[in-house]
Amino acid sequence: MAGSVNKVILIGNLGKDPEVRNAQTGTKIVNLTVATSETWNDRNSGEKRERTEWHRVVIFNERVADVAERFLRKGRKVYIEGQLQTRKWTDQSGQERFTTEVVIDRFRGDLVLIDSNRGGESDAGGGYDSPPRQLNAPRGGGNAPSRGGSGGSGGWDAPGGDLDDEIPF
Predict the structure, then answer these.
(1) How far apart are CA 101 and CA 87, in angstroms?
(2) CA–CA separation, 99 vs 87, rounded Å?
(3) CATH code linked to domain 8-113
(4) Which of 57, 63, 77, 143 is the most buried (most CB within 10 A)?
(5) What φ, ψ does residue 22 adopt, rounded to 5°?
(6) Domain boundaries, the chain
(7) Quaternary structure (predicted)?
(8) 71: which DSSP letter?
């Protein structure tokens, strides 16, 4: 079917530590379980209700698998982007079973750690225990280069200049 999309976005908490195994080719495969919850107030009783869905996630992307192995632990909040895949397998009693999983493939999908490390232990890099770094240059002050809007020499090192907010595209 032309124009179809198979994309899943989940924001939830890890139900247990990741399970890491190696394929025969030596590539890492990581299995996760992610819980998403929905809360609402019951109309009849006024009581607060909650429903939790559990999702199986499989990571085939080597770089994402490394991040998952090093930094993910039970309870961490994650953003996962992948696609649904259903596979058929046979259990020990010979009965055919089906499993639907969210797959982060080699060239598609994403994994983002949303919260800081809640366990309190410090990882070697320390990058996920600290607040996310700012990707855009700070506006005004600091040593960040700025472009002068009028007068002066112009360019990146014009004193007192600021970036223009009106982008033409």
Answers:
(1) 8
(2) 6
(3) 2.40.50.140
(4) 57
(5) -110, 135
(6) 8-113
(7) Homotetramer.
(8) H
Interatomic CA distance for residues 42 and 50, integer angstroms? 10
Per this entry, what is the length of the chain?
169
- HSE (CB half, 13 Å, CA atoms) of 119? 11
Closest CA to 65 of 104, 33, 117: 104
Beta strands in 15-163 (DSSP E): 19-22, 28-41, 48-59, 77-90, 96-104, 110-113
CA distance 60 to 21: 11
**What is the identity of the amino acid at 154?**
G
- Nearest alpha carbon to residue 9 among 111, 77, 116: 111
Block residue for tokens 């919850």:
37
Please report, in tens digits, the pLDDT of each residue of the chain (169 residues total). Answer: 578 999 999 999 999 999 999 989 988 999 999 999 999 999 999 899 999 999 999 999 999 999 999 999 999 999 999 999 999 989 999 999 999 999 999 888 899 999 876 554 444 333 334 343 333 333 334 444 433 444 444 444 445 545 555 655 4
CA distance 112 to 95: 37
